[in-house]
């Protein structure tokens, strides 16, 4: 086996370990944080803040995306939380598009590497395309492609769950409350004993610990359940992304995306999407790629394509949306990369 092949296999293996570890930790941590937020912030409040009935919801979604330093894959847990809270679909999509592209880390690196003018053009293009695309998807009712299980409430079914807790209106035979007890408004998770309402034994699954413990455990169980659903998609995406990273040389990119190629921008955008190259990694490499002959427009298309989407994220999105919405997402990122690339070629 040649040294070059061994080197590529080594890079692929190291990238696989890095991506699998990083994305697993990011997914679990962010999912748990989002679960805590959903626990303390009423869904109605989220719906009001990110409502698509006026432009403020889209603006709020863009701001939320721009202040969250997430990569394209670690955006998914936050996206899931917004979908579960029934936030406006359009503003939620604006968050999805802007989060990996306009966070403070990327903007700071752009300023240092390319200067103010290029950074402003980049930010305006990304924000404009994200908002316009989100409005169009909202008008076309693409929210119908959200998978039904994503919109369901948390998986908890015991009395600690808000949807099935002890209340005078919802108690039933599966609840730990006596359906005939007029004092059943007390929530079971505030009862520290193994007995629930009316001194009857707590059925299986009933929350009997004190409120803080039951609340955190409920959030963790929901986080772990969500992670198990997306784990197969995550691993498939990591394997493909790692293989691409290890076996696609920079020379191949610059050959098809050089300044002499009139199709350099769409080619760079097309190449960028399958690659898992975070913008924080891609931007410092920009000077090297430019020195190898890549045009600025193609370079911007590559940055937007690789940071805005990845094979791993596509597989994660498949756990949330049906095919047409996933295809629409890829079309938006591809269009954003092309518009951004040609804008740089035109104005720079």
TrEMBL record:
It is a multi-pass membrane protein. Residues 154-174 are annotated as: Disordered. It comes from the Bacteria. Pfam families: ArsP_1. Keywords: Cell membrane, Membrane, Transmembrane, Transmembrane helix. Its main location: membrane. It is found in: Cell membrane. The chain crosses the membrane at residues 12-37, 57-83, 120-137, 230-248, 260-277, 289-311, 323-347. InterPro entries: DUF318 (IPR005524), UPF0718_permease (IPR053166). Belongs to the UPF0718 family. This is Permease.
């Amino acid at each position: 086996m040649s040294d070059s092949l061994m080197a590529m296999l080594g890079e692929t293996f190291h990238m696989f370990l890095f991506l699998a570890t990083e994305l697993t930790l990011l997914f679990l941590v962010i999912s748990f944080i989002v679960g805590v937020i959903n626990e303390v912030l009423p869904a109605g409040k989220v719906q009001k803040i990110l409502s698509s009935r006026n432009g403020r919801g889209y603006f709020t979604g863009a701001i939320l995306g721009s202040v969250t330093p997430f990569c394209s894959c670690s955006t998914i847990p936050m996206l899931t939380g917004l979908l579960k809270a029934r936030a406006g679909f359009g503003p939620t999509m604006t968050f999805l598009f802007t989060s990996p592209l306009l966070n403070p880390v990327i903007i700071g690196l752009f300023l240092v590497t390319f200067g103010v003018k290029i950074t402003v053009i980049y930010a305006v293009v990304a924000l404009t395309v994200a908002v316009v695309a989100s409005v169009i998807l909202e008008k076309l009712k693409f929210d119908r492609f959200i998978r039904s299980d994503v919109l369901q409430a948390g998986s908890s079914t015991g009395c600690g769950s808000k949807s099935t807790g002890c209340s005078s209106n919802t108690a039933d035979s599966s609840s730990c409350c006596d359906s005939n007890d007029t004092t059943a408004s007390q929530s079971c998770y505030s009862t520290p004993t193994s007995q629930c309402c009316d001194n009857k034994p707590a059925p299986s699954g009933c929350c009997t610990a004190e409120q803080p413990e039951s609340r955190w455990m409920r959030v963790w169980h929901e986080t772990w359940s969500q992670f198990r659903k997306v784990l197969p998609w995550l691993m498939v995406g990591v394997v493909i992304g790692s293989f691409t990273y290890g076996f696609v040389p920079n020379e191949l990119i610059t050959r098809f995306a050089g300044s002499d190629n009139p199709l350099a921008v769409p080619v760079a955008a097309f190449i960028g999407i399958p690659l898992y190259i975070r913008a924080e990694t891609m931007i410092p490499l920009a000077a090297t790629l430019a020195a190898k002959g890549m045009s600025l427009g193609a370079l911007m298309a590559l940055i937007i394509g690789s940071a805005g989407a990845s094979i791993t994220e596509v597989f994660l999105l498949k756990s949330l949306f049906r095919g047409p919405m996933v295809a629409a997402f890829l079309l938006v990122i591809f269009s954003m990369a092309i518009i951004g690339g040609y804008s740089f070629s035109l104005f720079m």
